[in-house]
Write a structure and sequence with these properties.
0% strand, mainly alpha
Amino acid sequence: MNELIQTLAVYAIPVIFAITLHESAHAYVARYFGDDTAFARGRLSLNPMKHIDPVGTILLPALLYWGSKGTFAFGYAKPVPVDFGALRNPKNNMIWVALAGPVSNFVMAFGWMCFLYVLAVMHVEQAFFIRMASAGVQINIVMFALNLFPMLPLDGGRILTGLLPIKQAIQFSKFEPYGFFIVLALLYMEIIDRYWLTPISEMTLNFFQLFFSFK
């Protein structure tokens, strides 16, 4: 029980920041390109409660984690409402709105890595802060990589839709009602983990380590 409480304490702040800034980034970029839908609904906010979905952010990950005995978890926040038709250049701007979320996680992962570097330089050996910073790097790299997977409704699917020619984009968008279940199945079968998450996560982590090796 104590171990569970400690784990929750370590992961709570990184998870809250990762979700909140990811969703706020979508809202900010959407407003920048002309769509005020998310702003009008209060989603351009750093208040975590605006973005947490009781089922997707709390219940689903907990059930999956418990059901898989700690080997598998997946969740989601409240999707930021975007009226793509209100964007100044819908097809092009859609790419940047979708990309904003993963980019925010990449930046946060780098920020947590900087925090780890500072702790090491200052010879701070407090286990809680080291574990929290490590969790921040891990969580944000996973969110960065997973959200770039090219399947709707993930951000990678939005990016791919924006890049495809109109005819192919329309055909691809027909997968969206089933996309969540496709992604969930691929995650459960570890296909995404083996062929997408792990390679991208390792490349990102190697990039950070290479950057700090020059310090």
